[in-house]
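tokens incoming
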């Protein structure tokens, strides 16, 4: 080639497309391509090589490594409890409000206190949940009780239960499962 960009099209361009092409060619004019072999690098892994693990991590967490999630899956708990905790942390439990959105005919209100039954309500706002968390707070000498799962995220479990993350998950799992 003689340094010019040559583009062939199968059909005619509209006036707007022709102007956009002219602008694009003006931008591309200083670009010089050289013949070189391409190198493939996988940007989702430090080694720059493709791994199924890095693809899975990217597709499930958008490339962000979720440390609490790792702790959850490595904790020695029955699989059904791990799935339950994962659903709880991702707001995927079948609360009455969630079921109502899917066409359930039942009542979306809590049978204990009459407020809307959301996941947050079941585990933190309901009078039964507050009673359980108050008892847990007394047992662990805590002045405050968690008002949402966010209060227990990012090390909150460690602080609340005064223990390491995995043991904290086990303790939280027991209390949440009981609710």
């Amino acid at each position: 080639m003689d340094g010019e960009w040559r583009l062939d099209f199968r059909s005619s361009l509209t006036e707007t497309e022709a102007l956009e092409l002219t602008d694009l060619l003006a931008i591309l004019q200083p670009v010089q391509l050289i013949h070189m072999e391409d190198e493939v690098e996988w940007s989702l892994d430090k080694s720059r090589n493709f791994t199924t693990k890095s693809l899975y991590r990217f597709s499930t967490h958008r490339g962000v490594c979720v440390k609490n999630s790792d702790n959850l899956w490595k904790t020695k708990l029955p699989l059904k409890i791990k799935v339950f905790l994962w659903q709880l942390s991702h707001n995927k439990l079948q609360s009455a409000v969630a079921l109502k959105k899917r066409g359930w005919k039942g009542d979306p209100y809590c049978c204990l206190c009459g407020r809307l039954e959301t996941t947050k309500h079941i585990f933190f706002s309901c009078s039964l949940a507050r009673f359980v968390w108050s008892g847990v707070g007394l047992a662990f000498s805590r002045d405050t009780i968690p008002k949402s799962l966010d209060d227990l995220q990012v090390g909150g479990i460690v602080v609340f239960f005064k223990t390491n993350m995995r043991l904290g998950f086990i303790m939280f799992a027991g209390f949440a499962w009981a609710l």
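note: Residues 75-178 form one domain.
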